[in-house]
Design brief:
The structure holds two protein chains of two kinds. Chain A has a single domain, classed as Sandwich (Jelly Rolls), CATH 2.60.120. In chain A, about 20% of the residues lie in helices and about 40% in strands. Chain A is built from two helices and 13 strands; from the N terminus they run αβββββββββββββα. Chain B is mostly beta strands. Chain B has one domain. In chain B, strands 1, 3, 6, 7, 8, 10 and 11 form a seven-stranded antiparallel sheet that branches. The radius of gyration of chain B is 16 Å and the shape is globular. Chain B starts with a strand and ends with a strand. The chains are: A alpha+beta, B mainly beta.
Chain lengths: ~210, ~200
């Protein structure tokens, strides 16, 4: 009876785990297209871009004086070689928008990106509808996965009717540069835990059957 | 515009000294205006300055004359959309002349680059010393610190005659308070006019 109960729990967890696994959303791995932008010439690239939630992507370099942005099939790179005289006014903006209708990010917990080749100091901020400028920034001072929880969002807008997600990498030192990959939304910790429990449960269940 | 009222997001003193600095302004760390954010800027505002009053209109039309200037021009077009609005009985009236857009940094500017082509450029007066070397302190078109301005614009609204109407005029910095913007309202320009010939 005990073994049956455990198996039943594991089964429920496994079913839940399938949903959660599918719900981890990769918005952009930068695998398509390639271009470069620079201050003083073209400062943004905008076009139709299919992602699980949105249909438009705009990559922009903001500020004055010097910065470059390069998109390769592997990553998006941002380099500043002279800092704006105004703190926080040099940044890379990565916007995903939905032109018609809205989308929901309920059921998730945080935005995340993979960073590499990080030089200097900067900040990472994510905004959605109605939150730009109010969002809590996360320090960027090294390579690896970087996340910003939804609790950093400074909006009162409902997270189930959004039209915009905006990722901003702000230069705080004049040598700031980084490469960005795998822009994604990650599920709630409780869901992740459920996923792991389900995985463990399924494994144990299969071993017992053998 | 020789006289009137100036609403600014920072320093009042920037209005008549000519354009000396490229990044002038003062962050007063004051509150923004939610109405302005929802209807014009779309982003957080700070250092908002508002003027709100009632007028009694004998006639069926109200108008006011204004000029908007900003230190955000032209380096931060597309990024720091400082803006303002005037409403009469809650209706936004500070639009470009064909009513196709609001008046703000991002909606009135010259050609910046391929990403930000000119929008309503015919309404824009360039006052930027750094970017256009032909502009000097002696010959700059407008003797203000702001790097760019609109030409003199007129807001107009049809109203119910012989009643009181609420006018709200508000300006704000967007995202940060680093660079100032200002709104000049012409003296005696808020007036009721008679539509009859």
């Amino acid at each position: 009876m005990k073994a049956f109960t455990l198996s039943a729990i594991f089964l429920i967890c496994s079913v839940g785990a399938e949903n959660v696994a599918a719900a981890t959303l990769l918005l952009d791995d930068f695998s398509s297209g390639g271009f470069s932008l620079a201050s003083g010439s073209t400062t943004s690239n905008s076009g139709a871009f299919a992602s699980p939630l949105t249909n438009q992507r705009t990559i922009s370099g903001i500020g004055f004086p010097n910065w470059t942005i390069t998109l390769t099939p592997e990553e998006l790179a941002y380099t500043v070689d002279q800092l704006s005289p105004l703190p926080g006014r040099n940044y890379l903006n990565l916007a995903y928008t939905k032109s018609v209708g809205t989308f929901s990010i309920l059921g998730f917990n945080a935005f995340a990106v993979d960073l590499s080749n990080v030089v200097g100091n900067g900040e990472f901020a994510v905004s959605v509808d109605g939150s730009a400028g109010r969002d809590i920034r996360v320090p960027v001072n090294g390579s690896g996965a970087l996340s910003s929880p939804f609790s950093n969002l400074g909006t009162s807008h409902s997270l189930d009717s959004l039209t915009l997600i905006n990722f901003r990498f702000i230069a705080l030192s004049k040598d700031f540069s980084l490469s960005i990959d795998n822009v994604r939304i990650v599920p709630e910790p409780s869901s992740s835990l459920l996923f792991l429990l389900g995985l463990v449960g399924t494994t144990l269940h299969r071993r017992r059957r053998r | 515009m020789n006289s009137g009222v100036l609403l600014t997001t920072g320093l009042f003193s920037l209005w008549n000294g000519g354009n000396i600095y490229d990044n002038a302004g003062q962050n007063n760390t004051q509150q923004g205006d939610a109405d302005l954010e929802n209807r014009v800027t779309g982003e957080k505002t700070i250092d908002a300055t508002a003027l709100e009053f009632d007028v009694f209109s004998l006639n069926g039309q109200l108008e006011l004359v204004y000029q908007f200037g900003s230190e955000e021009y032209k380096e931060f077009v597309g990024a720091f959309n400082d803006g303002f609005m005037a409403t009469i009985d809650g209706v936004l009236v500070t639009l470009v002349p064909d009513c196709s857009d609001i008046v703000a940094v991002n909606s009135v500017h010259p050609y910046i680059d391929a990403s930000f082509p000119a929008i309503n450029e015919h309404l824009y007066l360039d006052n930027d010393l750094d970017i256009d070397p032909s502009v000097t302190l002696a010959n700059q078109p407008v003797k203000v610190e702001y790097d760019g301005m609109t030409i003199r614009l007129k807001a107009h609204a049809f109203v119910t005659p012989n009643t009181s109407h609420r006018i709200k005029i508000v300006i704000g910095d967007v995202n940060d308070g680093a660079l100032d913007s200002g709104l000049f309202i012409g003296e005696s320009s808020v007036r009721s006019i008679n539509p009859q010939p």
